[in-house]
């Protein structure tokens, strides 16, 4: 029996309105705007996360590969690709997009 990694490389194509996202690395401890250090172990309310879009389905309209997106990681499906964790979500589960293309932005930047 041949191992999967020994076979040909298969490109992953997302379907319909699905988006493949790689979580941004955890920042560990953070600082508040007032300079207070918040340790990585501090419990906070449900927190949204930023991630980088690696692939999109053909029905995705407002997100492109390379964009950074804001979403709730607890509501998403996780998949491991080559030993690295990724998330698969529907476009409608994305709360915001950070991109160089601006049409209806907030005036805030990452």
TrEMBL record:
It holds the Pfam family Cpn10. InterPro entries: Chaperonin_GroES, Chaperonin_GroES_sf, GroES-like_sf. Keywords: Chaperone. The keyword Flavoprotein does not apply. The keyword Chaperone applies. Belongs to the GroES chaperonin family. Together with the chaperonin GroEL, plays an essential role in assisting protein folding. The GroEL-GroES system forms a nano-cage that allows encapsulation of the non-native substrate proteins and provides a physical environment optimized to promote and accelerate protein folding. GroES binds to the apical surface of the GroEL ring, thereby capping the opening of the GroEL channel. Heptamer of 7 subunits arranged in a ring. This is 10 kDa chaperonin. The lineage of its organism: Bacteria, Bacillati, Actinomycetota, Actinomycetes, Pseudonocardiales.
């Amino acid at each position: 029996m041949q191992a999967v990694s020994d076979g040909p490389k298969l490109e992953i194509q997302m379907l319909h309105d699905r988006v493949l996202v790689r979580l941004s690395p955890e920042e560990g401890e953070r600082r508040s705007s007032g300079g207070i250090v918040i340790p990585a172990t501090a419990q906070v309310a449900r927190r949204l996360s930023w991630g980088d879009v690696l692939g999109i389905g053909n029905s995705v309209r407002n997100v492109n590969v390379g964009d950074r997106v804001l979403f709730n990681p607890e509501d998403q499906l996780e998949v491991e690709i080559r030993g690295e964790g990724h998330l698969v979500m529907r476009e409608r589960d994305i709360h915001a997009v950070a991109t160089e293309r601006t049409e209806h932005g907030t005036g805030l930047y990452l």
